[in-house]
Each structure stands twice: as structure tokens, then as C-alpha cells.
Design a protein that fits this description.
The chain has two domains: about 100 residues, 2-Layer Sandwich (Double Stranded RNA Binding Domain); about 45 residues, SHC Adaptor Protein (2-Layer Sandwich), CATH 3.30.505.50. With about 180 residues, it is an alpha/beta fold. The chain contains three helices and eight strands, in the order E-H-E-E-E-H-E-H-E-E-E. Helix 3 links the parallel strand 5 and strand 6. Helix 1 runs parallel beside helix 2. The two termini are about 35 Å apart. The protein has a four-stranded mixed β-sheet with strand order 1-2-3-4, covered by helices on one side. It has a four-stranded mixed β-sheet with strand order 5-6-7-8, covered by helices on one side.
Length: about 180
């Protein structure tokens, strides 16, 4: 597995690089083809942040995890655990689809060699609502008034559907569709 480790506001020591390569390298056992992982280590206000991105070209899948804590090593561990959960969920969905199609089932084997269960999340509620044209600031205000973490709206200028969301750092994000 090719692991690219970079640092922002932090020096990547040999010991830290070895630790990251060993931990992130664990996810390679879930895939038959070699992968490349991009790992970014950074610090902000005494928080140690680890971002891991692993594209899986054969499956058109992008695995991504971001974790932060007071210790860089703990952040690496948490990010790898999150990636492993994503992989298990993804492989469970493949297995379930294969069973539905009476096709050959792909075995889902966890890190301990045991076969894992397949609990797939499902849609339990559907909401329909009218999408009012507004600007981003008004959408953020509506989101905060409703107490939600995201809000879907139609941009008054472009008439396209956009989404604003609250980020972990307390700021807001905006998702715009590509035209």
C-alpha cells in the first residue's frame, strides 16, 4: 500500500510516519488490489487532526475519515477505526445485493478473521417540502431557527438547489451542484 503522509503545522517524525503507515496499512487487507492513501496530519489550538483519504478505483469508491483529539496517535487510531467501519458497511451492502440477485456472495471477513453480520441502514422516513428561493444568509438563519445541522434551499440568483450545513468547527459549509 502506498501511503503519502504530509503535515500542516506539525513535524512528521519518523516514528509518527511509521505509526501512520502501520495503522493505515491495515485497511489494505480488505482489498485485493494495491491502494494509495493520502494522510494529512495537522494541529490547531491543541487539537491533533488526522485526515485520511483512500480512493478505491476498482469500485469507484472514496473512503475518507477525519478525526481529532488531544493526541496525534489517538487521532490516527480513531481515523483508521472509522475507515474500517466504512469498509465493513460497504462490503455488507455488496453482500446483501449479491444475495438478492442470487449471485455469488462476497465473503465479509473482519480483521479477526470472523465473518461479520450485515446490518444495512435503510430509509425510515421521507419528507417532502417546497423549496423557497433565498440567499445563503437567509438559509443559514432558517437552519438555525429550525435547529437543524443542514438546510436545503433554492438559490435566488441561480435557481439551483443548494445545501448549507454546520461544520464541526462551528462555521458553515455550502454545497453547490456543478452545472
Amino acid at each position: 500500500m502506498n501511503i503519502i503522509v504530509s503535515g500542516k503545522n506539525v513535524e512528521v517524525t519518523d516514528a509518527l510516519r511509521d505509526y501512520v503507515e502501520r495503522k493505515v496499512g491495515r485497511i489494505e487487507r480488505y482489498f485485493p488490489n494495491p491502494l494509495t492513501a493520502q494522510v494529512t496530519l495537522s494541529t490547531q489550538r491543541e487539537r491533533h487532526i488526522v485526515e485520511v483519504t483512500v480512493p478505491v478505483p476498482a469500485d469507484s469508491l472514496l473512503l475518507r475519515a477525519e478525526e481529532d483529539s488531544g493526541d496525534m496517535y489517538a487521532s490516527v487510531d480513531a481515523a483508521v477505526e472509522k475507515l474500517e467501519r466504512q469498509i465493513r458497511k460497504y462490503k455488507t451492502r455488496i453482500n446483501r445485493r449479491a444475495r438478492r440477485l442470487n449471485a455469488r456472495q462476497l465473503p465479509l471477513v473482519g480483521p479477526d478473521g470472523e465473518e461479520e453480520g450485515d446490518e444495512e441502514p435503510r430509509v425510515v422516513k421521507t419528507k417532502r417540502f417546497s423549496v423557497k428561493p433565498m440567499d445563503t444568509e437567509e438559509a443559514i438563519l432558517q437552519m438555525n431557527l429550525l435547529g437543524h445541522d443542514f438546510f436545503v434551499f433554492r438559490d435566488a440568483a441561480t435557481h439551483q438547489i443548494h445545501v448549507v450545513y454546520r461544520r464541526k468547527d462551528g462555521h458553515y459549509g455550502l454545497i453547490e451542484p456543478l452545472s
